[in-house]
Amino acid sequence: MSFRLTMLKRCHLITLFLGLTGYSLFAQVVNSPVKFADSGAITPTFVEPPSVGETNGGGGSSDDQWLKVEFRFSVTKDAGAFLDAVEFKIWIEGRDMLDPQGKPNEGVPVALTGSVTYVNLAQNNNVYGVFYVPPSTLKRYCKLSPSDFERLFNIHIEANVDGKYADSIDENKEKDPKWYQPLKAMAGFVYRQNQCAFIVTDPNHYPAIKLPAESN
What we know:
The protein is mainly beta. The chain has one domain (3-22, 33-49, 64-201). Helix content is 10%, strand content 37%. The chain is built from three helices and ten strands, in the order αββββββααββββ. Strands 4, 5, 7, 8, 9 and 10 form a six-stranded mixed sheet that branches. Strands 1, 2, 3 and 6 form a four-stranded antiparallel sheet that branches. A hairpin with a 2-residue loop joins β7 (155-161) and β8 (164-170). It starts with 10 loop residues before the first helix and ends in a 7-residue tail after the last strand.
């Protein structure tokens, strides 16, 4: 049971949002070229940043930890062929205690959002992707201990191929497959690996990231 369910009386909101999407349920598309693992597809952990250019002598505290969200999926493209690109979108549950519209000690339930597009993916049953959330964002929107975060806050990830939905997975299963849609979306707070210092870690563990087109 998510923390959000103790805060939101969402019966009417759920009915409304179920009609605002092209998918009747977030199920895997038949013959999808991308499939999430049946279990353990999402692994949230709290990690220390790489000590690149460290000036304070290291020894960081828990307040310096980043949230790392690693996810596992399969590429089912025929052997010898490559899947050109897959876009992954993420929603990470949190709450904004500083929002003036929130109630005292409750705040406003939010979803931190981000996306990454991986390119040139060969057939493989164990492919990994990753997102990161910096400490300052965690302090504002997810101010809980690591154990509380994993227990209370949900994570939703979707895979899209050629602009079309392919599959999705949630960290904590709920009866409502669209739990995140009524939440206030907060874009720009979830980083791709190439947007932060973790670009130097595990360079061959994750697929290549699609870079923005160069302007002439």
